[in-house]
Amino acid sequence: MTYKYDFLIIGAGVAGMSYALKIAKALKAEDQAKGAKPQPRICLACKTALDEANTSFAQGGIASVTNLQVDNFDKHIEDTMIAGDYISDRKAVEQVVRMAPEQIKELVQWGVNFDKKENGEFDLHREGGHSEFRILHHADDTGAEIQRGLMEAVKNNPYIEIKENHFAVEIITQHHLGIEVTRRTPDIECYGAYVLNPATQKVDTYLSKVTLICTGGVGAVYMTTSNPVIATGDGIAMVYRAKGTVADMEFVQFHPTVLHHAGETHPAFLITEAMRGYGGILRLPNGESFMEKYDERLSLAPRDIVARAIDKEMKKHGLDHVCLDVTHKDPEETRHHFPNIYQKCLSIGIDITKEYIPVRPAAHYMCGGIKVDLNGCSSIHRLYALGECSCTGLHGGNRLASNSLIEAVVYAETAARHSLQHVNEYDFNTNIPAWNDEGTMTNEEKVLITQSVREVNEIMSNYVGIVRSDLRLKRAWDRLDLIYEETEALFKRVKASRDICELRNIINTGYLITRWAIERKECRGLHFTTDYPVHAYDK
Asked: Contact 274/255 with Cβ under 8 angstroms?
């Protein structure tokens, strides 16, 4: 089957749905001016149900300057630059920070609720690396609230057609017309994507004038992650295979505090950073605090510092976790601010108002990804990338807490403006051939895939994790190369399925993280190597 849409969106978190709603608003205005009836011109394709996007797992909140009595844009910009180890693109930082307040207003207009005080002002939190209270939130499930509000708006919009449980296999370029495409090809174009239909198990052709990739993160590349199992780096891998530019892949952020509970690793339950902003103290199981040895900001230091400190203490004392202590805080206030965390911990026998929370670091956020400009344009013409799969330059070497959700909405705005200005310059490429799986067979060797996924997870966690070395990275590179060759051979023999495609993507993503890590011969931001130590507590 072949489908045609003016706008094809692959992924459905805050980035994809924000973009879809902004485009739909403009299309509605056009039709009203012409007296035309609305029709679906936007396809929102997501590989799971709409409510399973990574956005739903974001607990802490969304950063924006709103309290102008004490906060301002310059403070937020500087906090972001400091957290990013001054690798961040200042133009990108300024764009996100200065456009944030208007985008918050639009989220509210779409039906997203943020907690407020009795006087009607936003109830702002503070998180690690922020110099002021500027985190808007909805209790401790802000991402889920944003996803809920946007889902309702998207589902009720006649210009948007939603394709749930549809898996994008590859983006379509000149390569699929038999033209040789290399990384030096100056005019690569995207004509849409090949998408696997779960009902028919066939790969359909989706032609588009504009394609947007917003497939989320890469956490499932690691053994323990705060991300859902769907975070397999699909968009990054597809664009890289299509010879698009990616950047900053060595900067994988490990959240310092996920709940340590046997069997829960994909995803591990996130203990929001806002809990440390609330006054939580990191301790060893014996009650001894330790962050004073690593940073004067203590438990509110940026995530890379806190994660490495926890990792070092765990290795030093032979522990599988440390603890977060909020027992000194008012119990009723704790239950009010963190109801989901309270209930989750209670379900495994821990009353956080009386007992420590066992925590450990886990893969959380990819700061690099598909390289884009200030309009969200990738190096491939007609292809945009937004959200965690993109590399806007905002995060640099380390993401400042709660900057990711606002980045997604701001870039949805700039990408929507740019694509609406240019969409009428493009046409559908009807010469694209159908997906060719002639001669392949149904894959009966699922054990090969599950075992390879497990191997990649172990390689990345053991050799390309929080602390790295040249020897570990070389070993990871060699092991991944072997698994890559085996998987590509299997992919050519069998029909496309979600599991074999996801395996290809995590191998590609793991390779990119490892390659970028090998090339950076310094400790910088989230990339820490024992061969080039610079931090004071390692001297």
From this structure: no
Could you say which DSSP state residue 452 is in? Answer: H
The amino acid sitting at 207 is L
Q: Is 382 left (phi over 0), alpha (psi -120 to 50) or beta?
A: left
90 labelled catalytic? no
Active-site hit among 134, 276, 283, 303? 303
Nearest to 360 by CA among 315, 326, 401: 315
Taking residue 202's Cβ as centre, other Cβ atoms within 10 Å add up to 15
Q: Over the chain, what is the mean pLDDT?
A: 91
Our measurement of the distance from residue 371's CA atom to the centroid of its chain's CA atoms, rounded to an integer in Å, reads: 14
pTM, entire model: 0.90
Return the HEC string of 272-313: CCHHHHCCCEEECCCCCECHHHCCCCHHHCCHHHHHHHHHHH
Higher pLDDT, 443 or 180: 180
Instruction: Please say whether the beta carbons of 289 and 355 come within 8 A.
Output: no
Find out whether 526 and 306 touch, Cβ atoms under 8 Å: no
The H or E element that residue 492 is part of is helix 470-493
Strand partners, 162: 44
Residue 341: DSSP 8-state: H
Tokens representing 185 are 């090809």
Q: What is the pairing mode between strands 160-163 and 42-45? A: parallel
List alpha helices for 352-445, DSSP H. 403-422
Q: What is the rounded average pLDDT of the residues 1-24?
A: 95
Query: CA-CA distance, 371 to 387, in Å (whole number)?
Result: 11
**Is the preceding omega at residue 228 within 30 degrees of 0, hence cis?**
no
What is the reported pLDDT for 59? Answer: 58
Residue 319: CB atoms within 10 Å? 16
Listed residue (227, 192, 190) closest to 208, CA to CA: 192
Contact 41/27 with Cβ under 8 angstroms? yes
Q: Taking residues 11-18, report their average pLDDT.
A: 91
pLDDT of residue 49: 84
Are the CB atoms for 431 and 191 separated by under 8 Å? Answer: no
Best CA proximity match to 13, nearest among 416, 409, 413, 503: 409
With beta carbons less than 8 A apart as the criterion, state whether 535 and 523 touch. yes
Rounded to 5, what percent of the chain is helix, strand, coil?
A: 40, 20, 40
- Torsion from C-alpha of 27, 28, 30, 31, nearest 10 degrees: 120
Confidence band, pLDDT 50/70/90 cuts, at residue 58: low
